Amino acid sequence: MKRNRAVNILFTFPCVFAFTMIILIPFFYGLFYSMTDWNGVSEDIHFIGFKNFRYLFSSPDFLYSFLITIGYTAINIVLVNVVSFMLSLIVTSRIRFRNFYRAGFFIPYLIGGIVLGYIWQFIFNNALTAIGDSLSIQALQVSFLSKPGTVIWIMSVVNTWQYAGYIMLIYVASIQSIPASLMEAAAVDGANYITRVFKILIPMMANAFTISLFLTLTTSFKQFDMNLTLTNGGPATRFMEMPVKASQLLAMNIFSTATANRMAEAQAKAVVLFVALVVVALIQVSMNKKKEVEM
């Protein structure tokens, strides 16, 4: 028994050590630095308590980024999961070439966020505007990325194009785990396809919805690379009578603050992002788990 315990400790030690060095220690260092005036360069560091946090919640720049990140996440949760679920129904049907479609829908997920942003930036800023000019379509003559009212929606569309194929696979696996006899029995009883989807598939896929919603929520909250290359935070708009970047999500706001040598402030923003993400994720998972039990 003691020998087995020693072997278990020996095998788990590398993982525990790596987790401690890479996650735990930096996390607590980050908490400490968020309460200092550290600029990332000077070794003269002073403890200032919660001053950075008080400043954040009076800063229009941070508040706007926080609110727009929540809005962007909400849009993504709806778009990504609706599109993914519809795609999963297509590729699990009896349609011809369904395996080809399954691979095609998943391929955009393999494109890195940096490359993806530049590709779609070219499409919106050059290709679509050229089509608008040549066909005299006024709506396309100005890039959607230059409009504060549409830029977040465009980012969500691009994110859905990339991420829907990945979430689709989770739904596909869940659908394939449901006995086909249930759907066949419902069809024999006279239930049409829509009824079978809402009365059989969706209730029995509750666990897949919990996982997919969690992944979509956390990924959207932490979005950075596509935000950087597609819009770089632009265009400019106004919030609380102050100029702000219309599409600068929270992760990019933290990055911009850190690159301006305001490291302690950036770390305080990162702590707020972490707390908000944990709270929202826990609420979402607990609500979905309750629905799983009810279903």
At a glance:
The chain has helices at 2-33, 51-56, 60-91, 98-106, 113-135, 151-176, 180-188, 193-204, 206-221, 225-230, 250-259, 263-294, and strands spanning 236-239, 242-245.
Shape, per Cα inertia axes: globular
Strand content: under 5%
Q: CATH superfamily, called what?
A: MetI-like
How big is the Rg?
Answer: 24 Å
Q: Which structural category do the helix and sheet elements fall into?
A: mainly alpha
Q: Structurally, how many domains make up the residues?
A: 1
Low-confidence spans: none
CATH class descriptor:
Mainly Alpha
Cα(first) to Cα(last) distance is 43 Å
CATH second-level architecture: Orthogonal Bundle
Sketch the topology as an H/E string, one letter per element. Answer: HHHHHHHHHHEEHH
* Main sheet summary: 2 strands, antiparallel
Count of helical segments?
Answer: 12
The mean pLDDT is 89
Q: Which strand order does the major sheet show?
A: 1-2
Q: CATH fold name, please?
A: MetI-like fold
Strand segment count: 2
Name the helicity range: over 70%
